[in-house]
Design a protein that fits this description.
Blueprint (H helix, E strand, L loop, with lengths): L1 E6 L17 H13 L4 E4 L33 H9 L6 E4 L2 E2 L5 H15 L5 E4 L4 H7 L6 H17 L3 E4 L4 E5 L13 E4 L3 H10 L2 E3 L11 H14 L7 E5 L3 H10 L3 E6 L4 H14 L5
Parallel strand pairs: 1-2, 1-11, 2-3, 4-5, 5-8, 8-9, 9-10, 10-11
Antiparallel strand pairs: 6-7
Helix pairs in contact: 1-9, 2-3, 3-5, 6-7
């Protein structure tokens, strides 16, 4: 099993004057290089284009309904830009999103952006996707929230079609084109791997039918009784779609016990979340994680 990192930006400045390491090129480059050095295989970033100041929609993955990173000191730079920048200062680290809100991105443009990153990085791009939960953000951006699920499925199919064919055609409910050329295609055979995040019934179905990987939205230390059932349902959807073995399992985790739990389920990667306020403490966190988890696994 491989080990990845999930990097969330926190602030070191005074309230109202945030100085987030995740928006600092020196911090990012140093963090990514050290992640490579200690044996991590990947680095993932969050995605929100905007946060409405007077948000109404509750965060579905916390009992309080509050999104834990929505405050004036948190920075969430655009993740594709982060991936492209870090690909240029690393050698082996893979980069992805966990997760990108897919129905807020035009799939043809996104396919081109990811293909470009994949070529320039030597085949190190991954795309984690979700249908989104923040209705206020959809409203602010002018996208429909009600049909985000079907559009998420459709957009995956659009990108697959564009990546797979030099001349592509597609006819769907909201996207249609005939004999177009993307002009830049991913380096990885089969295109950029798509990781489907979430744990709702639609997410399980989507992972089985369309995903290269399934990533539950909560940690391996949480709701352990539900993990085997969720993973079995994903596999049933995959089998029903004629995709036996096409979708693997990944999971967020923190401890060696989490890693062993995920490995027993057959997971291919555990992703550790980190949000240290400066490079020195971040590197120390990575060293501890390497000693206590990666080195003991």
């Amino acid at each position: 099993m491989k080990f990845g990192l999930y990097l969330i930006g926190t602030a070191t400045g005074a309230p109202g004057l945030p100085a987030a390491p995740i928006a600092d090129p020196e911090f990012l480059a140093g963090f990514a290089r050290h992640a490579e050095a200690v044996g991590c295989d990947s680095l993932f970033f969050a995605d929100h284009i905007v946060f409405p100041a007077a948000k109404q929609a509750p965060y579905p993955y916390a009992e309080s309904g509050a999104y834990p990173w929505d405050n004036e000191n948190t920075q969430l730079p655009e993740p594709l830009a982060l991936m492209a920048f870090l690909a240029g200062v690393t050698d082996t680290l893979r980069f992805g999103t966990a997760v990108l809100v897919l129905p807020q991105r035009h799939p043809m443009l996104l396919a081109k952006q990811l293909a470009t990153i994949d070529v320039l990085s030597g085949g190190r791009a991954e795309l984690g996707i979700g249908a989104g939960w923040l209705a206020d953000e959809f409203d602010a951006l002018g996208y429909s929230f009600a049909d985000r699920g079907p559009r998420t499925d459709e957009y995956i199919d659009v990108m697959r079609e564009l990546w797979a064919n030099p001349v592509a055609s597609f006819a769907g409910p909201t996207i249609a084109f005939d004999r177009i050329q993307l002009t830049t295609h991913p380096r990885q055979p089969g295109g950029v791997p798509i990781i489907v995040g979430g744990h709702s019934p639609p997410a399980l179905r989507r992972a089985g039918q369309r995903g290269d990987s399934f990533l539950p939205a909560f940690s391996a230390s949480q709701n352990r009784d539900t993990w085997p059932e969720m993973w079995a349902e994903v596999q049933l959807w995959a089998a029903d779609a004629g995709r036996v073995g096409a979708c693997d399992l990944q999971g967020f985790g923190t401890t060696l016990d989490d890693a062993r739990f995920l490995a027993d389920l057959g997971a291919t990667r555990m992703i550790y979340s980190t949000h240290d306020p400066d490079l020195a403490s971040a590197m120390a966190t990575l060293d501890r994680f390497a000693d206590e988890v990666i080195g003991q696994f």
